[in-house]
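Sanity check record (used in CI):
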Amino acid sequence: MKIIHFLSQAKKLATGLTGIDGHLNPRPVLLEIYQETLKVLSSIPDHSVYRQATETLTKQRQMIVKENEITEDIENKIGCGLIEEVIFQAKDELSLAKKMLEWKSWEDLEVHPPAGQWEYFRKK
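Expected output for NADH dehydrogenase [ubiquinone] 1 alpha subcomplex subunit 5:
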């Protein structure tokens, strides 16, 4: 039993980051996550600032992943760490997009803030 465990651990790639194992084939995973994120974002109204910003970023990163076969090139062009970290970021963004859809963050506030609430840093 110990031999099987040892062999399964040997297959994992090292990233040099504690708790983050290397990924054998990250491109398809990233493309799938980006596609799912864009699908969720399409359910949010066009005028939502969150949708506009996240959709732009996701499409930009998706294009980088599609155009580059080499993992190091993807990492350098995205500029957010190792590809495994980019996968974590993409998963987190997908999770947030689902929550934003659930929360309907584009709708008006139920209770409007009092006048002048956000002006306390302005000089009078």
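The chain is about 60% helix and 0% strand. If this sentence no longer matches the regenerated tokens, the check is flagged for review.
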